Batch of 2 targets.
Target 1
Amino acid sequence: MNENFKLDIKKRPRRLRKTQTRLALCEETHVSPSDLILPVFIKEGKSGADKIPSMPNVYRHTIDSLLRLCEKASKKGIMAIAPFPQVEQSKKSLRADEALNPKSLANRAIRAVKKRFPEMAIVADIALDPYTSHGHDGILDASGEWILNDETVEILAGMSVLAAQAGADFIAPSDMMDGRVGAIRNILDECDLSDTAIMAYSAKYASAFYGPFRDAIGSAPKGKTKKYLDKKGYQLNPANAREALREAQLDEEEGADILMVKPAGHYLDIIAKIKERTTLPIAAYQVSGEYSMIYAASKNGWLDHERVVKESLTSIKRAGADMILTYFAMEV
Ligand code: PBG
C-alpha cells in the first residue's frame, strides 16, 4: 500500500466482525429446534419406511416407524410435526370420501403420536389432494376444470373436526378455498374444540417447487403428458404480492391463529410484508423442491450442505417467520 494513502473514516462496521465473540454478540437471527416443524410422510402397513427418490434422506413412514422418528425428533428438541398421508389408490375417489373417515391413516397417525408423545404438537394438513382420484385439493365441477369452493369447504370443515378430535394441536388448511378458515373456526367451536388452533396456509402459491412432495404422497397424476397438476385456479399467482396480503387479512379476520407463507425461500418478500401488517405469528414452509434443490447441489459437491441449509433457514427467519416447516429439521 502506498504509505501516503490514508482512509479517513470513523465508521468501520468491520470492527464488529473482528472476532467470533463480537460476531456472536451482534447476531440478529437465530434458528433453534423449537422454531422448526418437521413435515413427515406416512403410509399404511407394517413394513419399514420407503425412500422417496426425489427427496434424499426423507422417508415415507408406517405409523410404527413414525413413532420411532418422533422419539428421535423430540430428543433433538423438535417439538412439532406435520404428517402428510399417502392414501392407498383404492381409497381415493372423486369426492374424497376417505377424508371424512375418523379412522383414516392421517387420523390414526395423529392418535398414535399423541398417545405416545402428548407434548409433540401436531399440525394436521387439511386438504383433499391425498384423497381425490385426480389429485386436486377439492371437488371438481362437471366440466372437470374448476374446483367447487363451497362443496369443498364443507368437507374440509368435517375433516378438521375429525383431526382435532384425534388430537391435532393445529388445523392447517392448505387448500386455498375461500372462506375455509371461518367455516373451520365455526365448526370447531360448535364441537367444543375451541382450544384447537388454526394455522392457515394463507399465502400458498401455485408453485413448481411442490413437485417432489407430490411424488411423496402420490398425488401427481400418472400417465399424463403434464406431470404435475395445475392448481392456479385456487393457489396464488407467483407474480402477485398484494393478493397474498388480501388472503392473509381475510384469514386473520376469519379467525386464523397463525398465518403461513409457502414456499418460503423465493417468497421472503411476502413473509416480510405480511409480518408488517399482522400481529399474529407467521409460519413459512420451506417446501420439497427447495429441499431437493439444496440436496442435489450439495450431493454433487457444488454447495456446502451444512452452510447452505443454515443460511436458507436463517434467511427465512430473518424475513420474519416465527416458525419454519422444513424437511431439514432433523439435521439442524
Ligand atoms: C397440498 C399440499 C402441497 C404441499 C403441502 N400440502 C402440494 C400441493 O399443493 O400440490 C407441498 C409441500 C411441499 O412441496 O413440500 N395440499
Target 2
Amino acid sequence: MHKLLARQIADAAQGGALDITRLTELVSNSYDEFDQESVRRAREIVASGTATEKLAEQNRILDAALAHMVQGVAIFDAEQRLVMSNKRYAEIYGFPPHLLVPGTNWPELVAFLLTQNRYAGEPPEEFHPDSLPNAFRVSDTVHRFSDGQIVAIARRAMPYGGWVTTHEDVTDREQLHAQLREQHELVKAQEAELRLRNVQFDIALNNMTEGFCFFDKYERLIICNNRFVEMYNIPAGSIRPGMTLREIVDLRYAAGVCPALTSEDYYIARHRVGAAQLPSDTEVEMSNGKVFEIHHRPMPDGGWVATHEDITQRRRVEAKIAHLAHHDALTNLPNRVRLMDRLEGALQRTSDGEMIAVHLLDLDHFKNVNDTLGHPIGDELLKIVANRLKHAVRDIDTVSRTGGDEFVIIQTALTDCSDAALLAERVISAISAPYEIAGHQIIIGTSVGIAVAPADGETGDELIQNADLALYRSKGDGRNTYSFFARELRTALQLRSVLEADLRHALVAREFELHYQPIVQMPSGKITSCEALVRWRHPQRGMLAPDSFIPLAEESGLILPLGEWVVREACKFAASWPDSVKLSVNLSPNQFRNSDLCEMVVAALAASGLSPEQLQLEITETVLLTNNEATLATFNRLQSIGVCIAIDDFGAGYSSLSYLQKFRFDNIKIDRSFVKDVTHSAASRSIVRAIAAIANGLGIVCTAEGVETDEQWCTLVEEGCSEMQGYLFSPAVSAAQILKLLRYDGAQWTRGARGTDRRA
Ligand code: C2E
Ligand code: CA
Ligand code: CA
C-alpha cells in the first residue's frame, strides 16, 4: 500500500494534524479534481477517529482520489523503487500492469519505455537513462511524443528521500496554446501590414494629382486629401473628418472656388448626385476660371468617393486644338475648313431668298514683299491685311485666309449686287492704304473676284471656283480692281488653255516675229535706238500683240525660250544697223530668276557680232523687287561689258528711288500713263518734271514713252526729257520697214506748225 503516504498520514495523525496542504501539493495539478468531499471527510476522520480506522479510511480515500485523477501520479522511494502509481500513469505510458507494482525499479520502467519507440528524438529527461543520477532533482518539463501527444511532467523530491512525479496529457491545451500563439502572430502580422498599408495609403492619397474625398451615407466626410483642400483653396486646418457635405460646400464658396450657382443650389445638385447612388462624371466650371471634373462613385454602404480632377489645362489645349483646326495660325482668321462650313450654312439660307456673295482676294505681287523684305515682314503684312479686312466687313460676314496671300470673304444678306461691289471697293481701298512695317513703307494692292449666290453657284466649291475666275479677270484687268463672275469667263478660261497649247507650238512653228519702234533724240530728232517688240502671227487669230500672250508665257515658263529667241533674233538683225543706232530689248522678270541671263546675252552678242555698246536691255521695277543682290550683280556684269540697262515704265510701279541709288541705270523710260496726261494734268506734269530732273541730275538719259501729240512733245521737251518714243514718230513697224527708216541716213523728225514732219 501507499506506504509513504500512509506514513505521512500516520505521522500527521499522531502529531494531531494531517498535512492536507502537503498532500494537495503532491497531487498539485489535480487539486480541482480532488473529491473535495473526500478531503473534508479525511479531515474529519483525522480529527476524530482512531489511527487505524483513520488510516484505512485515508487509504480508501486516497485510492479513490488517485484513481480518478486526470494526471498520472507515481511515487518512488529513496532506492528508486516504485511506491505507488495510478491508473492514469499506466494509461499515458502504456505500462503493463506487472511493471507497475510497488517495488519495481525505476530503471526497469525507463528500459520498458525505451523499447516503446514513442520518442521522436531523445526520450524526456524523466525517462532518460543518463538522467538517473539526477532523478531526485525538481523539474518541470513538457514532452512531445512522436504520436503528437504532449505530456507535462512535474517531479518533486520527497522529504524522506524518493520523489513523486505527476504526468498530465496537455496535448489539447498545448494545441490550443499553439493555435492562440499562431493567431496572435497572425494578428500581429496583420497589424503590421495594416500599419504599412495605412502609411502607403496616406502617401498615395496625398500625392494624387486629383483631389479625393470620401463621404459616408450621412454625407459626413470620412477622409479627404491635401490636393482636395488645395484645389478649393480651403484654409489649412478648417476641414476635418465628420464635417458634412453642406459645410464643405460652404467652405468652398467662402474660398471663392465655386460654380456660378448659389451655394444652396450647388449643394442640392451634389446631394442629388449622392442620393442617386450612381456613378457620374460632372464637369464644373469654377468662378476662378478653373474647370474641374468630379468623378463620383457610390460605395455599397451608401457613402461615396469623389475624385476632383483639374482639367483646366486639358480643356484649354482641346479648345486650342479645335481652334487651330478651324483657324489660320498666323492671322487667327477662320481657315478653309471653317470657311466651307460657314459657306454651306449661308448657302442653306439662300433657299429662303437670301443673297450672298463670295469675294476671293489675292494680294497683288505679294511674293515681291516676301522676296525683298523677308518672310517675317510678309507675315506681319498679312496680319495687318487680316485686321483691315475684319474692319471692312460686318459681324455677320466671314473673313478667312485660305492660302498664302489669298483671303475669302463671305458677305451675307445682300440686297443686290451693288452691295457686293461696295464691299469690294471698301476692301480694295482698305488694303491699298500704305503699310509701315519695321521701318519699311509698303504699298500693296489686291484683286477681287466676286461670285454671287444663288445665281453663280449652288455649292460652296462652285462659288469659290467662279469667284476665282472673276479674280483671274481682275488680275488681267491690271489688278487692284474687282470683277464679278460671268459665264463668259468660263469660255475665256477655256480659250486660255487653248492659247497656252498654241503658244508652246508657236516657237517651233516660227510664228513669232519682231517689230521695231524707233526712239528719237531731242532736240536733234534723230533715231538713237529702236525697241524690239514681239508679235505673234497666230495661224487662226491673226497678229497678236504681246499683252495678249506675254503674261501667259510668263505664267507657263515659256517666256524663257521666247525671251532668248527675241534677244538672239534682235541682235542678229540689229548687227546690220548703223553703229549709232542702238537696239533696245525688253526682258521679263522671270528671265532674271530662272536663267543665266548674262551668258545668254553674251552668247547672243557673240553669235550676231553686235557690239555690246549697241545693246540696251529694258527691265521693269518688278525685276528689282525680287532677288535684289543677284539682280544687281547681273546688271553690273552686263554693264561692265558695255551693255546699257534701262528702267522701263518708270513711275507705274513702286518707283523706289533707292533703286536709282543702288544701280546707275543708263536710261529711265517714263511710263506712258504720265505722258498721256502731261498736258492737262498738273500732277502728271509734276511727276514727269521730277523724274526728268532726277535723270538729268544723275546724268541718265530720260525717255518719254507713248508720245502721240505735238503738245505732249513740247511739254516733255520743256520738262527736260531727252528722248521720245511714240506714235507721233512711228509705231512699231516690221523689220523691213524699220530698215527703210534707218536707211534715210540720219532720219530725223522736226516739229512742224501743225504736226510732225519727217525729213530725209
Ligand atoms: P513697253 O515695253 O512699254 O513697250 C511699249 C509699248 O507701247 C508697245 O506696245 C508699243 O506699241 C506701245 N506704244 C508705243 N508708242 C505708243 C503710243 O504713242 N501710244 C500708245 N498708246 N502706245 C504706244 P506693245 O508692242 O503692244 O508691247 C506691249 C508690252 O509688251 C511692252 O511694253 C513690253 O512690256 C511687252 N513686250 C513687248 N515685246 C516684248 C518682248 O520681246 N519681251 C518682253 N519680255 N516683253 C515684251
Ligand atoms: Ca519697253
Ligand atoms: Ca515701256
